[in-house]
Amino acid sequence: MEITSITIRKMGSEGKMKAIVSVTFDDSFVVHDIKVIEGTNGYFIAMPSRKTLDGEFKDIVHPINSAFREKLSTEVLAKYKEALESAEGTEPVVQPG
Question: 61-93: per-residue pLDDT in tens?
């Protein structure tokens, strides 16, 4: 499965959530609402989730192996870094994948 597009849909500088991202796979399947979060050890991605009846959050979709999770994280965070760099100028924040 190849990542064919990464779109930074929304960026913010306040709070820990820094961006909301959509990722397209094989030009056939898209996952919306992947979040870029700033943690104590740097940035990481959080997959779309929903709150259960007991108040816990569960991922709706997620990678099932660590190799693909690392690939997804690396590519999304690289695209986020590009968007940050272009936002420092007069470029629009949303970057097509």
Answer: 999 999 999 999 999 999 999 988 887 765 444
**pTM as predicted:** 0.82
CATH number for the domain harbouring residue 13: 3.30.1120.40
Number of domains composing the chain? 1
Contacts of 74 (CB under 8 A, 6+ apart): none
Contact (Cβ atoms closer than 8 angstroms) between residue 52 and residue 60: no
Which regions of the chain does DSSP assign to beta strands (E)?
A: 3-11, 17-25, 29-39, 42-46, 49-51, 57-59
Structural domain contains residue 30: yes
